Amino acid sequence: MRMEDIGSQIFDELASRFLDSMLKQSKSLRVLDLSGSQVALNSLPDAICGLSHLRYFDVSGTKIKRLPKSFCGLCHLQVLSMRSCPIGLLPEGMSRLINLRHLYGDACKISLITGIGDLTNLQELEEFRITNMGRHGIGELKGLRNLRGRLSILYLENINSEEEATEAMLKDKATLHLENTSRATSLHAEEIFEGLQPHPNLEELKIEGYGGIRWWKISFSPI
Fold first, then answer.
1. How far apart are CA 105 and CA 121, in angstroms?
2. What is the pTM of this model?
């Protein structure tokens, strides 16, 4: 191992110990912003569970790959940002963060949250990928009635029927980006889009990969 690699490893270990010690002594911390940190932290210390007053947490642009199980105990957390970081594992029970209002991260990270529909106070959710696992069906969006701003919904081909699409209650969402990543058959695509009735005062709509041969019916109300 090169001397510079050894030096970097020692620095990262010291930084990790420092963070652990700091968290244990900062019980009243409300904001923890680690974004852009170049320290090679693959995970966070369990000491983070002691930050019962934490409201804002940002690990964007870090090397963190997972969050500890104790993270789900941060019941007062309102903002969680996981942009541009290699997180590939989230603990079970993320749906208990019921005060979460702003959730930033790509669809791959968001899909790691089982039961995201329980986070009924969410106001911002950038991407939602429809899957058949982990309670990530289109119906999970029904309870997220406080969402504002732009919402991208990916993998529409995983919706099984028009009735299932209707469960999303997209008529409550004002800005949509709908993406069909693998073109479904024309009939199936048309049925899906018939069920995805948007907000009557829709402000912005972007559709990618639509496989139907006709556009579905949308009833717009005058603004």
1. 17
2. 0.77
